[in-house]
Amino acid sequence: MATQASGAFDVQLAPQPLFDTSADALLGRLSIDKRFHGDLEGTSKGEMLSAGTSVQGSAGYVAIEKVSGSLQGRVGTFMLQHVGVLNRGASELSITVVPDSGTDGLVGLTGKMDIKNDAGKHSYTFDYMLEE
After folding, report:
1. Cα 132 to Cα 124: distance, rounded to the nearest angstrom
2. What is the CATH architecture assignment of 3-14+26-129?
3. How far apart are CA 86 and CA 103, in angstroms?
4. Phi, psi dihedrals of residue 55, rounded to the nearest 5°
5. Cα 109 to Cα 103: distance, rounded to the nearest angstrom
6. Which of 16, 75, 111, 123 has its CA at a distance of 20 to 30 angstroms from the CA of residue 132?
7. pLDDT one-digit tens code per residue, 12-46
8. What pairs with residue 9 in β-bridges?
9. What ranges do the domains of the chain cover?
10. At 91, phi and psi to the nearest 5?
11. Is the pTM of this model over 0.90?
């Protein structure tokens, strides 16, 4: 049976150098540093790659972040994979737990996370399942 966790998070994104320094200016690389509050208490570190286009409102990104903390009382780590597309202003975002990435009390974790940014205030809803 799926369980839902929710809360707020703070995030800091910092530009990082691209591997290919001759790459197009529309490409980007960022570090991710988050602090989760609520049903998920902890931190995450990760990396994001982004691509803009010459069309206003169109872009894409991928990211991986490692989350460390407590999920409704169970302590461990897990990885999240992000895939985001902005198509002329219409957004699609998928954030999924990387299979078999859970450790310690989070072994067997599966699920999907939704995030919202409302006037600079970030929140998450996390639908997940854990092995018994």
Report:
1. 24
2. Beta Barrel (2.40)
3. 33
4. -95, 125
5. 9
6. 123
7. 999 999 887 776 778 999 999 999 999 999 999 99
8. 36, 122
9. 3-14+26-129
10. -105, 145
11. yes
